[in-house]
Specification:
Keywords: Exonuclease, Hydrolase, Nuclease
Distance between the termini: 36 Å
Largest sheet: 6 strands, mixed
CATH superfamily: Ribonuclease H-like superfamily/Ribonuclease H
InterPro entries: RNaseH-like_sf, RNaseH_sf, Rv2179c-like
CATH topology: Nucleotidyltransferase, domain 5
Helix content: 25-40%
Strand order of the largest sheet: 4-3-2-1-5-6
GO molecular function, one term: exonuclease activity
Radius of gyration: 17 Å
CATH architecture: 2-Layer Sandwich
Number of domains: 1
Protein name: Exonuclease
Pfam family, one: Rv2179c-like
Shape: globular
Number of strands: 6
C-alpha cells in the first residue's frame, strides 16, 4: 500500500493544547504525484477550562476574516476527532502527517486524537516540511524557510489562515518538494529564491 500525505494545518488560541484550544484544523490528502484526493476540516468548540493566550488573542484581532471562518459551525471536539479518524481510515494509502511546522500542528492534532479518541492513525510521528526542504536544498535548517525555497515549488494558492486553505496550499508545496527530490537534476541548483515569503 502506497503512502498518502495528509497536509494538515491547525488554528489555535494559544501555544499548547490543554490550557488552550485548537479552534480549527484541516487536512488535505495528496498522493505523491500531487493528486488531491480528499479533504477534511472542522471548527471546534473550545476546551472546558481553557482560555486564549493573550498574545494569540492579540494576533487574532488582526485577522477578522480568518477568525470568523474558524468560529462558524462549531463541533464538539470528540465528535470531530472521531469523524477525522474514520475519514483517515477510509483513505487508500498509509497516512503520513505532513505540516509546516510539524512540531506545532502535530502537537495539537495528536493531543486531541489521544484525548478524545484514544488512538492516532499516524502513530506518534509526523513529517516536517521545513526539515524535508533542508535535505532537498542541502542547506542549514534555519535557512530552509519559505522565502529561501525555489519559486517553482509554489503553486498559486492563497495563504488565508483558514486551516483547510493553508493545508491545501502547503500540501501542493510538499508534493513539489517530493518531485524536486526525485528529479535527477535536483531542485536547488541555479534556482533563484522565492522572494515574497
Amino acid at each position: 500500500m502506497s503512502e498518502i500525505y495528509l497536509s494538515t494545518d491547525v488554528e489555535t488560541d494559544g501555544p499548547i493544547p490543554g490550557p488552550h484550544s485548537m479552534l480549527s484544523f484541516g487536512s488535505a490528502a495528496y498522493t505523491s504525484d500531487k493528486q488531491l484526493v480528499s479533504t477534511f476540516s472542522a471548527n471546534l468548540e473550545t476546551l472546558e477550562g481553557a482560555a486564549p493566550h493573550p498574545k494569540t488573542a492579540e494576533w487574532w484581532a488582526t485577522q477578522p476574516a480568518a477568525w470568523a471562518a474558524c468560529r462558524k459551525d462549531l463541533q464538539n471536539p470528540e465528535s470531530a476527532m472521531r469523524a477525522y479518524v474514520d475519514w483517515i481510515k477510509s483513505l487508500k494509502g498509509k497516512p503520513v502527517f505532513v505540516a509546516y511546522p510539524a512540531g506545532f500542528d502535530f502537537l495539537f492534532v495528536y493531543w486531541y486524537l489521544m484525548r478524545f479518541v484514544g488512538e492516532s492513525p499516524f502513530s506518534h510521528s509526523a513529517l516536517d516540511m521545513k526539515s524535508y526542504a533542508m535535505a532537498v536544498m542541502k542547506t542549514e535548517y534555519r535557512e530552509s524557510t519559505k522565502r529561501n525555497m525555489p519559486k517553482q515549488w509554489f503553486d498559486k494558492f492563497p495563504h488565508t489562515h483558514v486551516a483547510l486553505d493553508d493545508a491545501i496550499e502547503q500540501g501542493a508545496l510538499f508534493c513539489n518538494m517530493l518531485k524536486a527530490n526525485q528529479s535527477k537534476s535536483g531542485a536547488w541548483s541555479e534556482t533563484p529564491p522565492h522572494s515574497s515569503r
